[in-house]
Specification:
This protein is an all-alpha fold and 59 residues long. It is built from one helix and no strands.
């Protein structure tokens, strides 16, 4: 009985660690996605600023 209980505890511990690692990876991926979204927004603002400068220069 004890070896089977040990196997169950080891399995559950491994599953818990795997779940924790996966959650950590998902959190890291979410941060990366947020940074990419911010970069895209900054590029969009830069494009608008360049278009405004071009309009000023053409006048």
């Amino acid at each position: 009985m004890i070896p089977s209980m040990t196997a169950i505890v080891v399995f559950l511990s491994g599953s818990t660690l795997a779940t924790y690692a996966l959650r950590k990876q998902v959190a890291s991926l979410n941060r990366l996605i947020a940074e990419i979204e911010q970069s895209i927004a900054a590029i969009g603002r830069l494009v608008v600023a360049i278009q405004a400068l071009r309009a000023i220069i053409k006048k």
